[in-house]
Amino acid sequence: MSAALKVVRPGLFDTLQDLGRFGFMALGMPTAGAMDRVALRLANALCGNPPGTAGIEIGVMGPDLVVEADSARIALVGPLSPALIEAPEAAPKPLESDRTHLLKRGQLLRIGMVEGSSTAYLAVAGGFALPPFMGSLSTYARAGVGGLDGRKLAQGDVLPLTRERAPDGEDKKLGQPFDYGSGPIRIVWGPQEDHFSAEGRRTFISSDYRVSKEADRMGIRFEGPTIEHAVSVEKGGADIISDGIGPGAIQVPGAGLPIVLLADRQTVGGYPKIATVASADLPRLGRLLPGQTVRFTPVSVEEAETLRRDQEARIARAIADFKAARPPGGIDLVRLYEENLIDGVVY
Amino acid sequence: MSVRYLSCGDTAFTVEFGNEISPEINGRVMALHAAIGRAAGAGELPGVIETVPTIRSLMVSYDPLATSRARLQPAIDALIARGLPTGIASRRVAIPCCYDDPEFAPDLADVAKRTKKTTEQVIAAHLASPFKVYVLGFMPGLAYVAGLDPSLYLPRRAQPRVRVPRSSVAIAMDMTTIYPFESPGGWHLIGRTPLWMFDQRREQPVFLAPGDSLSFQRVDRKTFDRIARQVEAGSFDWATLIRPAERGR
Predict the structure, then answer these.
(1) How far is B223 from chain A (nearest CA, A)?
(2) Is the pLDDT reported for residue B21 higher than 60?
(3) ipTM of the modeled complex
(4) Fewest 10 Å CB contacts: which of A150, A273, A290, B141?
């Protein structure tokens, strides 16, 4: 029998995602990909996978998965409180997030709710044995492509694994939760900041904007003070000849409220885009929940590029700082030795 | 002709050639799209991920970990200064279209009435239009194809349809399009092609590409059904749709 994780109860919006599908925007194909690229990278690194390996993006609530393999090492990254049911009828045992777990055949992993973020990630050592579409496993549900049959996970789905058993080695965990940064979301003005009045631009960077209920993988519609176009909407101030839409583009249609366009955004569009979110802050956008409030603050292109390079260095440091993780209920020998040494006790 | 560089954050910028819809401007967009593709393919533009041509501008997407705006913009200026080719080879494609079935062409009579033509004259004008694919977007494989005979210009329908069948051929404003998926739509449906504009089973799932010269070829319902069966079965030979390339626009 081939190795797999089987979905015995689906979550709300769980899709397979990698870092995105590039090279086909000219054909109208959105990039898709993980909403929080940092968390997926960390989950893959914990499992020893290459960074571009596809994992499960868990949206709001995750699935219950049964292990149909001799063993599987999975990593969960994000604010989750998962539980493991080791045998039928056994009581659920709480598991920690931000670390790997070695699962055995027949065990049931109950991922549960994501708390305080809209997304979390599950990676599995070796990845899923599914064919890429146009070079990527990222699910783009609107066209029904990528991932598993181009859709979110459903009851009874079987996710084939590349490995029949987990690789040897210890479980690992994050040294500390990744710091996504706080404060205003950094933006770069443009491409069409000149389609807005000076007052409109001032409103945009000096007001609180609240995530509305219309927030998904395509984008986030914000609520707050309206942003004034330079030319009245009646005279076409909210129309441009369609041009390309980059990740994090903030379009402002006639109603004057900003929409940040994310992973599943369309490739071109005809609304003016006042600004674009710095790529280092896109993972923060990918974690926002309806009702949360943000502010936007401008930086230059060069500053945004530097922010991204700094973030990459911090990801590399976080990976270098992975710690050995204690098996549930077991003794953390490494920690014991370290603390003993610090205390000056020698055997 | 000078260009404007518009920032799209730290992972893309747009090279804007103008603010109007014209074959000349779009020709330059497509020429830069091709020139960057060639240069990147030859390893001359490390960090460039892809380019997205639209009617009057080209978005250049890049990896800020591998390059920077400060390095790329002069490199692209240099490509433009070297001179963009004016007559890029354009692929000529012929799309079979059945106009005869009322189920396929629910708006044909209305278009005829509003343009003061017979339905046959509407079909003839659509067949004679020198179409060109300007941009793909909104949905994978959805092409905005300009060049519609001016006598057929109409605004979009006042009441968009909730469901337009896949492969419907439609017109609105100065354009025609083919719906790659069943989707909502406000254009006038005047025919249907047996082809799928997006077929994920194919190695190249999207058939049309920006820059293609396009014409429609009238087929009857019997031919439509025959081609539709081949497309469905995956046995259709798409190469038969492509005519020899012509130089220039």
Answers:
(1) 28
(2) yes
(3) 0.92
(4) A290
Is B80 a residue whose pLDDT tops 80?
Answer: yes
The DSSP code sequence of B27-96 is HHHHHHHHHHHHHHHTTSSTTEEEEEE-SSEEEEEE-TTT--HHHHHHHHHHHHHT---SS--EEEEEEE
User: Does A189 contact chain B (CB < 8 Å)?
Assistant: yes
- The neighbour count for residue A147, using CB atoms within 10 Å, is 29
Q: pLDDT tens digits, residue range A140-160?
A: 999 999 999 999 999 999 999
Quote the CA–CA distance of A179 and B103 in Å, as a whole number: 58
pLDDT, tens only, B113-127: 999 999 999 999 999
Answer whether B9 sits within 8 Å of A188, measured CB to CB: yes
Rg (CA), chain A: 22
**Residue positions counted in chain B:** 249
The two three-digit tokens of residue A290, written as one number: 């309806």
Of the partner residues B6, B52, B210, the one whose CB lies closest to the CB of residue A191: B6
With cut-offs at 50, 70 and 90, classify the pLDDT of residue A337: low
* pLDDT at residue A331 tops 60: no
Q: Which residues of A touch B68 (CB under 8 A)?
A: 302, 305
* pTM for the whole structure: 0.91
Instruction: Name the residue with tokens 């005809």.
Output: A270
User: Mean pLDDT, to the nearest integer, of A190-216?
Assistant: 97
Give the pairing of strands A15-17 and A71-77: unpaired
- B7 and A247 within 8 Å at the Cβ level: the answer is no
**How many DSSP H helices and E strands does chain B contain?**
5, 14
d(CA B246, CA A270): 31
Whether the CB-CB separation of B70 and B60 falls below 8 Å is answered with no
Per the structure block, which two tokens stand in for B245?
């390339």
